[in-house]
Design a protein that fits this description.
The structure is a homodimer of 931-residue chains. Chain A is an alpha/beta fold and 931 residues long. Helix content of chain A is 49%, strand content 16%.
Chain lengths: 931, 931
Amino acid sequence: MTNENKWVYMFSEGSESMRNLLGGKGAGSAEMVELGLPVPPGFTITTEACLEYFRTPGNLPDELAAELTAELGKDTTGDFPRDLADRIQAALAKRQGEFAPSVAAQVQESLAAVEAEKGATFGDAQNPLLVSVRSGARASMPGMMDTVLNLGLNATTLQGVISRSGEDGERFGWDSYRRFVQGYGSIVLGLESEEFENIITANKARLGKKDDPDFSADDWKVMVDEFKALIKDKTGHDFPEEPREQLDGAIRAVFGSWFGQRAVDYRNFHSLGHDWGTAVNVQAMVFGNMGETSGTGVAFSRDSVTGEKVLYGEYLLNAQGEDVVAGVRTPEKIGTLKETMPAIYQQFLEYAEKLELHFREMQDLEFTIEEDTLWMLQTRAGKRSPRAAVKIAIDMVDEGLIDQLTALQRVEPEQVDAHLHPQVDPNTEISPIATGLNASPGAAIGIAIFDADEADRRGRNDEEVILVRPETSPDDFHGMAVAQAILTARGGATSHAAIVARALGLPAVVGSEGIKIDLEARQFTAGGVTVNEGDLITVDGTSGNVMLGETPLIPGEITPELERLLGWADEQRRLMVWANADTPEEAALAREYGAQGIGLCRTEHMFREGDRLPIVQEMILAEGEKARTHSLKELLPMQRSDFYGIFKAMEGLPVIIRLLDPPLHEFLHSVNELRDELHELEAAGDTEGLARAEKMLSRAEDLYEVNPMLGLRGCRLGIMLPDVYRMQVRAIIEAAIQLKQEGVAAMPEIMIPLIGHINELRAVEAELRETANTVQTEKGIDVDFKFGTMIEVPRACLTAGEIAEFAEFFSFGTNDLTQTTYGISRDDAEGKFLLEYVEKGILPDNPFQVLDRNGVGQLMEIAVAKGKRAAATFKKDLEIGICGEHGGDPASVHFCHGIGLDYVSCSPYRVPVARHSAAQAAIEVQVTRDI
Amino acid sequence: MTNENKWVYMFSEGSESMRNLLGGKGAGSAEMVELGLPVPPGFTITTEACLEYFRTPGNLPDELAAELTAELGKDTTGDFPRDLADRIQAALAKRQGEFAPSVAAQVQESLAAVEAEKGATFGDAQNPLLVSVRSGARASMPGMMDTVLNLGLNATTLQGVISRSGEDGERFGWDSYRRFVQGYGSIVLGLESEEFENIITANKARLGKKDDPDFSADDWKVMVDEFKALIKDKTGHDFPEEPREQLDGAIRAVFGSWFGQRAVDYRNFHSLGHDWGTAVNVQAMVFGNMGETSGTGVAFSRDSVTGEKVLYGEYLLNAQGEDVVAGVRTPEKIGTLKETMPAIYQQFLEYAEKLELHFREMQDLEFTIEEDTLWMLQTRAGKRSPRAAVKIAIDMVDEGLIDQLTALQRVEPEQVDAHLHPQVDPNTEISPIATGLNASPGAAIGIAIFDADEADRRGRNDEEVILVRPETSPDDFHGMAVAQAILTARGGATSHAAIVARALGLPAVVGSEGIKIDLEARQFTAGGVTVNEGDLITVDGTSGNVMLGETPLIPGEITPELERLLGWADEQRRLMVWANADTPEEAALAREYGAQGIGLCRTEHMFREGDRLPIVQEMILAEGEKARTHSLKELLPMQRSDFYGIFKAMEGLPVIIRLLDPPLHEFLHSVNELRDELHELEAAGDTEGLARAEKMLSRAEDLYEVNPMLGLRGCRLGIMLPDVYRMQVRAIIEAAIQLKQEGVAAMPEIMIPLIGHINELRAVEAELRETANTVQTEKGIDVDFKFGTMIEVPRACLTAGEIAEFAEFFSFGTNDLTQTTYGISRDDAEGKFLLEYVEKGILPDNPFQVLDRNGVGQLMEIAVAKGKRAAATFKKDLEIGICGEHGGDPASVHFCHGIGLDYVSCSPYRVPVARHSAAQAAIEVQVTRDI
């Protein structure tokens, strides 16, 4: 129970259970204090105070505040309007937000407590207290405000710092001061950090200095003045000298960054709550740059790449936190600390173990050593590679730290997925030249190419290319489609490049700000290396790393650890996982990956195979049922052997065969191709070929459709050309009978596509059931089979009650259902406007990848409810599943679990992810129910 | 309250209030008895007995009976499966159905009562009772069993008839007997009537006779034996001699005919209840063929063509009912009876007036005069021409017979519609050479053409053709599309010809069995006339008549009578009627027809006009917003003047402008055309033209879409090319401001098409509202306008609650909504499979003509409910209407009234029908509520 009027908590007052109120950083610090670890004194301003800030009258224009309140009042997870975020930022920039008096008072009080504990005073000339200010939301979230260090420095307090910092105090003090002004200027006041760097560069030139450490105290003094002048110029205000004013500015900036564009995008993308708010952590500074007995570092409690149970990280002696990141000096591996400072190492190891045991989770730790004293600055769950995630989860179960359910929840679906993609060999020592956002998993090697046309040209030439762009736009689509991977310098998880890469299943690293692209020179530089067009690079979309040259890759595989984890998943999940497979080989692979049935076997793929196509074309060219008989007779044994193979591979498991679905003209050459052919044949004097081509052209013209997706296909074919479906059913039943004779149990389920009206199903099914019965009578052997229907147009959902009277199963074809529900043709939209919609935030996701719950999902819920009610009335079973691509998408699997489907069916490669997601969905529901 | 165990009612026991139980014929006879009119004694076996017959165990196989019970238990109005009807017929043909014992007993009892009243005995050799047996459902229904006359005749009773029939008794008796055997054989036993005619023809040849009356008694005796042999041969059973067996057979046949193919089709088509059943009327025969003091006739109580209040009909002396129809002798006009039999005429006139007054409805009467005694055989509401329907309704109100509400209900929507089509001048004396089913209204003149290819050729040549076919199939579509009218020899109201004609808005007469087509000779004969290909004929789809040559036609018009009726309709209806109009002329016409607003003004039509198209093409070819500016500037004044004209025509009434909707490639030449053009320009050496054509080709290829209906169109254009929408909104607001300055009130409503996700509307509307505000600020004048959206994809319906937050109106675009709900492209489907679906009974109607209530309607109900709920939450008005073609379809208007829309919008020509239908819907709801 939290106190509604308490806005600020000392670390010693908090706990992990208050994570929502204190944020991750605040809760972690509180726990460390509770465990008796050395933590510099500090306090947390709560997430509630953040929300109160936006509610405080005057901070936002009334209308905007009302709009924000309305938006947060809705269930808007993952759908916060970008324009609203922009208007909030603009309004905040204009006004100096006020804190509620109680907030201001409590900050003051807590500051006094920190002063007391630290024995230093804020703004004091002799012994000044300096603090760091960090944002910290409930979940780690890029785009939120960075850390501000050394806050409290000004002309007065600087003297105290200098006098307390030994021999090199003057330089140390001025360096700290300039870092603070520079950091505060860019982070809090919003100037480009480049502008400060420019000043430093100019001074280097002027003074003939090479590196930052070469500057003297006086040099920095000059630059601090220049920094302040820049700030005055850009913001119109003097740099705040008063420490409390500095602190308030930093707090305001943290609060405001909650609705920053990147943070909003991130929450939209990850479906995080916009009404959470962020906490602010204010903590007394400790210094790792006080000489050789000081230092700073970060470390994981286990190896974040392999998952092994060893400390993993790095540190720098005589350095502040930012130096570790800045890359000016190369940090040491954490293991070497054992030799340099054995006692500190031992102490740190102990703390790491203690924290891991306490949180029962691998920890990411930040520490500073100040003159031989170890200070713990942060603890949080550590990010890890996909393989490490699985290994750590498994190991922790073996170690008795967590149970299997927790292990399943600890691993992200994307981490399971990443196992199935090629990845960088973990046994390789890699040296990335750049890193960026790991936007789409997998690793690939190719030559760097800087424009889409060239990529397209080379790609068609079978060259393996990696498209490198500042950012991508729809005009680049053709180049992306042929690339092995995408690398961009700008953009985030919802940028065009990221969206398209995921849509195409390509590895992508985006927003890799370290690479500087020169399009004219056709090269980029990164990490001091220049990469020219045509040079080989490796892009690892799983980790976000970019390497020069060929980095050894290993193919995707299900590791023994993942195998174990998926075994646990199978015990937890209620949803079955089936696979979409058109051949015995695919079926076998699916079974190996754990598929419990085939949810979609598309017979049209069989029709397209080399030796079949001419026969299929003959069939289409034939006029009337009688003329088709010959071709169908030829196709029958071929289809029978197709089904025989798949049924055999899936022995004992159900196999859903979808009867012929696509428009017939797909099997003929296109009208344009045929026209060209005609000219050629004419020129060559091939009269026989000409006659055939003319016939095909005439038929192709007959069959031409303006909107083939909505034309003569699916069951409409079954009604207009009933003999084709009869042949297919005969082949299915004959194959099942043959297998029964061989002692193999086949479980065919015959699926009639594109049903929109119950009478379509009634007409087609009655006829096909008769065919099935005829075949069984002929052979004197009965086999089990089902008849069912695809639910893939809205009308089928709306009238599912009627359809359930005749269907033994429903299979949601969510690709077509999405197309018809939205009125969007996927073929046309993805290249033209759909991805731009996602990029612009008009759609939260590509609805062909993530099931649109509000629209398509609503129809599915209607269909399930009506279907099940009708099935109950008729006292029959109704098996319901999904066979659209969504079947392998984790969020969609959760939804399918929620609405009570029996199975999801997806590509064989998505089967492991689906098994895991189905388990997570079951556990989530269980947990929710427990609460 | 009916007695559940009473299956049979004497005429004297019934009444009009028992119409559902006794059927129309039974109830009419009962009322005539009640009114004291001379009716031959008889009784009615109830519709309940009919239903009981199907339920009686053993009459149908158990499974089939269960299936039928289930089907009738559902609300299946208009959707009874044809295959089920077929299986019932097949089962009935195999079995000799049993009557429940109580039914059999009550028939026997009632027969005894008839015998007593008539003083004759069934099967008696001296004074035999003969009866007629007729079906009679609640509503008149073609396809039900015809009348069987003279039932009760056999070798024994024949002697009684002969002895009682005067000098020519022998011939009269045998003629009656052969008519009975012939009629019973074809009607009850299901033989082809042609087979009997063949026997007669053979005997004519053998005996050298010309007409039927030339045969002697002995001749007929021979033929009766031949008839009986034929029946034995075809049915495997002897002709039933026992009168009661004859009667039971006839009753069974009437019952069975309830599920006959034609009856089921008719009920499906007219949405009549399949669970009504039919009654059977058994009535003592009276004879009009007993000499010159006998006769028979039919007459209407008012003129059924003009509606004038005069007796209208015809009669034949010394004839039986079938002679009037058979056309062997030409009947006399009823007026002449006044001279030939003045007393009888006076009596009949009195009865007609009495019945009309009693039923307060124009009556269709059948009578027989038996030896100077008038017998009334039937009374029922009379069929009438559209103009007569309106005139009679109006007159009856003026006469105080009915009120205005009843008058509105008496006129069918089709009758209102027929006023708007060309029709045969009612002042013309017509002599049809054939009649058939009036399948699609209107009259047309053209040359008879016997195949679709020729019709197509001549039609393209601007010849006015009428396609005459035995029946039509999808292969004839191209010929139908260019014809003025369709005439077929076979098929009913749901035949391909009928469906396509209605879809194309062409007059059609179908199933005109009197015409004999000789396709090889390219001619048809009808009514003794031979019509060769190229001869002019007139087809009147309103009446079903076919005339040789040019019959004078009058154009469609709103008669003063119809004007009055529509005035009453306007007082009753709640739904507003708006019109779809793209030009000021159309808008003016719509207003003249009573439109209260424009529900859809399509701006793309304006873009296609001659002088605009090149500018529009320039705009499309321009790359990027800046390059488009020039074209848009040129288009702005043009669009402004378009809107100015329409707003002015609709002064004071709302006008909904739909922003640009179609895919842009519709404005360019097709890729194929452009390729051809390119070749020509190249050959001609026109380099400038070539450059432009190449650019257009390249752009057309860019814009090419696989499924344009689901592609870059509607609001998607507004998002990708925002300047085009901005130009349109500017034109709208500028036009409204200009009119305001001129003192004319414009009420523009700006409609954004194809919204699928609320964010689309949010993005587009925000921008356009800004444009509207800018224009108003510029001009310093504010005008009223609304922003709203078309609801035309399923997702918009499902998320209507979200959309209602931003939209001020919804307009259902049911064309696209039907396409997406069904997953059917209208362009592709109607020519290929959709009409065949309707013909095969897979779909009850063409869903693009009659709104699909179960599917599309369900989505509309969801949208209305969600939209209104949200509007209430936001305390705002939400105007909801429909602007698809369905807006002018009566059944769809009823539905729209029922779900609470504010208006329907349809073609100007459908406005009168919609006004009337809206009134009927309102009255129906009122009546239902009263009950």
